[in-house]
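Q: Structure tokens for this one, please.
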Amino acid sequence: MTATATRRLVTGHGDPDAPATLAGFHDFMAADGTLCDYAAAPDVERLADALIAACPELRFLQEVVIRYVWRRKAQTSQGRQVLGTCKPLTGLPKFALGGGEFIVVLNAEGCRDAHLTAWQQEALIFHELCHIAPADPGDPAARPTGCAHDAELFFAEVRRYGAWQRDLTRAAETFAQIPLVGA
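A: Here is the predicted structure, written as tokens:
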């Protein structure tokens, strides 16, 4: 069985190994012909909506207003390429986008440089949506919040010391339970 046969896109159609649908140069052109740093991402929003509808762990996001945009230029953080971010939407950006609670920004140049497949793009969007934690069920006024990754690690640390802390133990248990497909 091939990796493609074991994987299925959340939309139910398309080849997981096909190139991802990314914003192109023309998507960043304003009506007056100037080049913009950000562009609307309706395809990303449609894919995110499909993920939210299909994945039980994301269904709480059905009532959350999330904005989706492409960033034209690649971005790095601490020497690593950043393919996307998800952050609470506040201040001027919230006003400019007409409201919303969170913003997911995908980096078009970085995704293009990484040669993302449709499967990897779906995984990236899922990853960014996982940065939103459900509201506290005990507080009726609570809203979803931003959250960090489940585990922070260095490969060298794990090679030398193994799963020495709770986050790493949980990660090891999770990896042991699933077949790793892909990249």
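A few notes: The chain has two domains: 3-148, 151-183. The chain has seven helices and eight strands.
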